[in-house]
Amino acid sequence: MKSMTGFGSAEYRDDEIHLTIDIKSYNNRYLDIYVNEPSYLAPIEPNIRKKVAGKILRGKVEVRINIVNYSEDIEVFLDEKNIETYIKVLREIISKGSLEDDVRLSHLLRMDGIIKRESTTDTEKIWEKLEPVLEEAIVNFDETRILEGEATKIDILDNLKNIEGELLKIEGYVPLMEERLMKNLRERFEELLPQDNEGNEQRILAETAVLLARFDINEEIQRMKSHLQHFRKIIEGGGSVGKKLDFVCQEMNREINTIGSKNILSELDGIVISVKDALEKIREQVRNVE
Length: 290
Description:
Helix content: 55-70%
Structural class: alpha+beta
Radius of gyration: 35 Å
Oligomer: single chain
Number of strands: 6
Distance between the termini: 7 Å
Shape: elongated
Largest sheet: 4 strands, mixed
Number of domains: 3
Order of helices and strands: EEEHEEHHEHHHHHH
Strand content: 15-25%
């Protein structure tokens, strides 16, 4: 099991290039990759994304690439069309403002887009050096996610064990709950109806059966046990488990809420709250799992 949060980096240097790559990630429902790179590396960005997506299934991932290219080829040129446009606009300003001035070089140098700079660096050649560095950064990044994921798994399993223990306590109270229901119903009938009446006894038994069926929690307990087994199976199965675990948590939460709504014993109130608390802690942790 892996955490969605992690950090990894790698570095490479030779006579032509100094390259550093940092990868970090945050919780996110889906996979969202953001690549921060020099603009001239845009042609190889799909390669970078593919590498990252091949190892990371979920989370918001930031990949930052810094390059000092000692042998970078630069082409600098003038945009003549922009120059003509700027001169025309500046002269209109001078004319309309009745200024005693003319367009000078210093004016033009303040304008954007007159001098353009383009790198003619061979991006394929850079990719040959960048790819192994990216792979190393991903490995380092993945190691932190695995370590954090294992710590999260231990915490989740501790809370799961608490839920299993509390569920056994709830199951142990089922006979008392049934006994209390029967007692309360009988007392109510005895207050309202004549005693020593065979018809009334039959009615008490029938009403008791209806009430027991309405407040029976055995089915919810068995479903909770099934969900707990399924949860353990998923968490030990590996891969992308976060969404599956969250779904099972929702199902368990539904069952414990039903048990709480049917409960008539004050002794069970604290146990139900304890289960809900442990479930909420698990869900908080699961939201950080890939």
